[in-house]
Each structure stands twice: as structure tokens, then as C-alpha cells.
Amino acid sequence: MIDWDDIRYFLAVARGGSVRAAAEGLGVYHSTVLRRIAQLEEHLGAQMFEKLPSGYRLTAAGEEVLELANQMEASSHQLETRVFGRDQSVRGLLRVTLAPTLATHLLMPDLADFARQHPDIEMDIVSSGELANLTNREADIAIRVVYDRKTLPLNLHALKGPELFSGVYMSRDRLAAWRAGAPDPIRWIVISMFGVPDWASEGEVRTTGVPFRTTDGEAQIVAVRQGLGMTTLPCFVGDADPLLVRVPGTDLHMHGTLWLLTQGETRKTKRVRLFTEFVSGRLAAYAPLLAGLSISRD
């Protein structure tokens, strides 16, 4: 009989295109992946991959196995979610995925409150920019910023939360220096993969230097605190930071809508329902902060 774990390793190599990618995705050693693939090939009596300079390519036999392996994986996930959906205990593992900024600057105190209220629930918080696949049980609940409702996966249950707005911010000290006539250049601070949005280019303060780029949101926030220039931030980040202030003359812009996403049978479990009700209530209370209405504009 074929070992399902061997199939998992096979799928990881087929999808990642290399043993290294598969090992990183599975969190195992390179040698473990090679051993599992060799074990599967020995069991089936056929070579699954052709090793090329560019990576691993499926053989004809491997292509046939891939189709069946995908079916096996789908059946395994379906069985798992149905059994999980019948579990009504307030204990066990609960995996929640959300963007790092939401976890760090908004919801971590609430996640901690929920954990204290339910000490038998093991919390696994996946704060990442990557979109976890709820159908494959990579997470039980996703808290996502969605820009277009039409992009919501049709196979997921979606609960709408508050709207999220962004503004243009700079450090209070840098704004005071600019008003006093300081000649230092003011830069746009941007995350590398994004440019400066058109809506953020109008205001009393104009940039005079070359851009300053970072690769993540936390570095972006630290850079603007240091007085390098100005940047766009969600209002719940910028307004809550005592070192930052909105740039005079700039408007707010709708960044998206927060949605709570759950999958099929999974959302029927008591711990998922408890968390969904809990966090949706907290998000509703944060609606003014998320919309940029919690402070007076400087």
C-alpha cells in the first residue's frame, strides 16, 4: 500500500519544482524529501521526476501519479473537514491567519484575551502576507483585507467587517521642522513592491528627495518615525502612534474591507464559532479607528 506521506512529498516537489522548495515548504531536510521520493518510485516501479538544471520535471508516469495524488489530497481534506466540523469541544487547535500589521498593531491584545478566556484552545496565529488556503486546512479562519468583494472565494463563508481607511503620515518632529523652514529633503517612504498611490500625492507638504524603499510594513513605520519623510499607512496604525501625524492637506482613502473567512464544515465547530463571534465584535468596536474617525485632524 502507498504511504500517504510519500504522496505529500511527491506533491510538494511537483508543485515547488525542486527538492529544496519542497523541503522548505514541508519544514524537513533535503535528504528526507529525496528518501521519500525514492521510496515512492521503488514502490511504484517507475521514475517520477527527471532532474534538469532548472529543477525537477515530471515524467510521463509522474504526470499520471500527479492527477491521482491531487484526488487523494482533495479526499483527505474533505474527510478531515467533515470530522473537524463535528467536533464541538472548546479545546484543540485553532489556526488563524491575518496580515502582520493587523496582528501587531490591532488585534494581538484581543487574540490574547481570547486565549485567556479559552485556555484549552491552542492558538496558532499565522501572521503573513501570503494567503493561506482554507480549503486545504492551512488555516481555520482568515481575517483578510479585501479590495473587491467579487474576489472572495465562492467556496468560503464570508462575514463582512468594518471598512479600512489609509492616510498620509509623517513624524511630528519632521512636520514641525518643515514648518520652521528646515531644508532637509522629505522623501516618500514606500514598500518596494508598491509605488506612491495617486491619491496620496496632494497635500501641503511636497516631497523633495528620492524615494526611500523598504520591504515590509514594520520597517516602513520605523522609517517614518525617524523623520525621513512621509508615507501611507492604515489609519489604525498612523493615528495610534504618538510620534506620527497626518500630513496637512491630505485626505483619507478607503483601503479595503475586513472580512472573516471560514470554510464549510470547519465553521460549524464550537471553537471556530466562538472565535468568529468574539473577533467580529472586537472589529466592530474598532470601526471608528479603522475609518480614521477616532482623532481630530492636526
Automatic annotation (TrEMBL):
GO-annotated molecular function: DNA-binding transcription factor activity; sequence-specific DNA binding
Recorded superkingdom: Bacteria
GO biological process terms, semicolon-separated: DNA-templated transcription
Family annotation (PROSITE patterns): HTH_LYSR (PS50931)
Span of domain HTH lysR-type: 2-59
InterPro entries named among the record's database cross-references: LysR-type_TF_proteobact-type (IPR058163), LysR_HTH_N (IPR000847), LysR_subst-bd (IPR005119), WH-like_DNA-bd_sf (IPR036388), WH_DNA-bd_sf (IPR036390)
Keywords from the UniProt entry: DNA-binding, Transcription, Transcription regulation
Family per record: Belongs to the LysR transcriptional regulatory family.
Name of the protein in question: LysR family transcriptional regulator
Organism the protein comes from: Rhizobium leguminosarum
